[in-house]
Amino acid sequence: MNEILDKIIEILSDLHEDVDFTTCDTLIDDKILDSFDIITVITEINSEFDVAIPADRIVPENFNSAQALAALVEELEEI
Amino acid sequence: MQTNILEYLEQTVPRVPDKVAFADDNSQLTFAAVSRNARAIGTALRQDGLYGEPVVVFMEKSPEAINAFFGVVYAGCYYVPLDVEMPAFRIEMILEQLKPRAVICDGKTEAALPQFGYTGRAYRFDRMIQTEIDDAALAAVRAKQLDIDPIYIVFTSGSTGVPKGILACHRSVIDYIENLSEVLGFSEETVFGNQTPLYFDACLKELYPTLKFGATTWLIPKACFSFPTKLVEYLNARRINTICWVVSALTMISATGTFKTVRPETLHTVAFGSEVFPVKQFRLWKEVLPHASFTNLYGPTEATGMSCYYHVTREFSDTDAIPIGRPFRNTGILLLDEQNREAAYGEPGEICIRGTCLTMGYFGQPDKTAEVFTQNPLQTRFPELIYRTGDIAHYNEDGDLVFVSRKDYQIKHMGHRIELGEIEINCGLFEGVEAVGCIYDKTKGKIVLFYTGGAEKSELAAYLKQRLPRYMQPNKIFRLEQMPHTPNGKLDRKALTALYEAD
After folding, report:
1. Residue A2: its pLDDT value, please?
2. What is the dotted CATH code of the domain comprising A2-78?
3. Residue B161 — very low, low, confident or very high, per pLDDT cuts 50/70/90?
4. Which CATH class is domain B414-502?
5. Contact B184, B271 (CB under 8 A)
6. Fewer CB within 10 Å, N or C, chain A?
7. How is A30-60 classified by DSSP, letter by letter?
């Protein structure tokens, strides 16, 4: 889990060098991530973990924090 | 002959006064309301003596902001849309260039105005529309107006670090709307789903055909474009049948497998442009909407909206590029080679445009205007302007234009036109930054910035957020010990690309 989280924080930090992704849990609500970022995150997660996030899981709740994303990846990896 | 864009509105209002013209999740404006509000705003501006000058519309994206545009035109002025999400520095720079005497704002944006150093008059939309309409005053304005008078300024990225304001007149917009409507088959039944911001000319596609036909435009919330399932559900719920979007908005839906969950039910007309539509993604769309029409559009803001179109009716292989096609009626395209001769058939040349579509040039920048709006070199006997796009294209065997590349460092990123030079200049202004180089990774769609000096990456990123719009922010930042240069001292972008690829 920690490895996944670390990697996700790395992906996010590449997008916004100035945001602390270890604590922020309002990435969507506060408009920190925009549609370009979301697409990048989906693509990077796909190539990094070999996990395709299905469209019905691309919802604000899953993108509001690095933790939520990590949990989603973990869940998808188990399938 | 029509000479004013407001005639579209005036002819439609008596026919469908109570139909919704512009709507979003917060409000809906009927044609009658749009007409009444616009004339009230026009009256208010005239009463304060405004005429033939820029009026800034600084409002949240909304039906009301669109309504304010038409009000400005009623006063014989030209509107300049500014967006609340633009960084403060950019807004200041634009206000400095325009020195407007009037800004129309809403309850939310009013408070932000003083921070930009703006000292002119601030009007509130909700108060302006209470003004008693003075039809005689508006008729007097109309009697003076010509179709070569400007109606808007939109700003585009400038390589010198200063955005350029492109000014367009009634005649160019009418020419564009008439021909675009014919090509895409708009009608009173059209329900547009708008994606593009109001501060680009891209929104002309929805705004004026809505007035012309008595159609309806929905402004789709920006947040929908991050969540594909929600976006398609939104289209279905509002029975949207026509979309003119940037390619990245379309691929976001198809690439995430959205169609397995939800399909567009009412969509029949899809236009896209500003970027290359990957054929693989295009096929997914075609599969889910086999009866819809798909049209690729191409055109620079300097030639008012779009200039060329291509109806995608045949099959393409994955590696093919969808052509940009042929010019609209009453628009001429020349492909000029480096010697200013017409490129031989099939050979690459710079796309140069002639016609009524040519805008009036860059506001307050005659030198910049003269660089790209030039005499047609093929016409030596009388004055005729062409606009040199800087885009290189060639004709294929079907006689369709195919985009090849750019002549300079202008890029298309997420449908936005960006000068890499503007990013470099802004970055170079940050304390602790010595040298800067910017490249664009086309395949991944990433702006990559390199710099040297003591500045911290995170601080530099935060600084750029204050100066540049979101779409111009570098997606990747590297700090280097030394900036690579070519033997003759120029920035070596090839070496930067190699560094980036090695990473």
Report:
1. 85
2. 1.10.1200.10
3. confident
4. alpha beta
5. yes
6. C
7. TT-S-HHHHHHHHHHHHHHH--PPPGGG-SH
B262 contact residues in A (CB cutoff 8 A): 55
d(CA B309, CA B105): 36
* Closest chain A C-alpha to B181 CA, distance in angstroms: 29
Domain boundaries, chain B: 1-145, 301-406, 414-502
Chain B CB contacts of A43 under 8 Å are 444
Q: Which residues on chain B place their C-beta less than 8 Å from a C-beta of chain A?
A: 222-223, 225-230, 248-249, 252, 255-258, 260-262, 414, 444-445, 457-462, 465, 470-471, 475-477
Here the ipTM equals 0.86
pLDDT in tens, B320-370: 889 999 999 999 999 999 999 999 999 999 999 999 999 999 999 999 999
User: Tens digit of pLDDT for each residue in A23-62?
Assistant: 999 999 988 998 888 988 998 898 889 998 999 999 999 9
Q: Could you tell me which CATH number the domain at B301-406 has? A: 2.30.38.10
Pair of tokens at residue A22 = 């270890």
CB-defined contacts A:B, below 8 A? 70
For chain A, the structural domain boundaries read 2-78
- Quote the pTM value: 0.91
Chain B nearest C-alpha distance from A73 (Å):
15
- CATH class (in words) of the domain with range B1-145: alpha beta
Hey, are the CB atoms on B477 and A17 less than 8 Å from each other? Answer: yes
- Cα separation of B247 and B282, whole Å? 9
Count, residues in chain A = 79
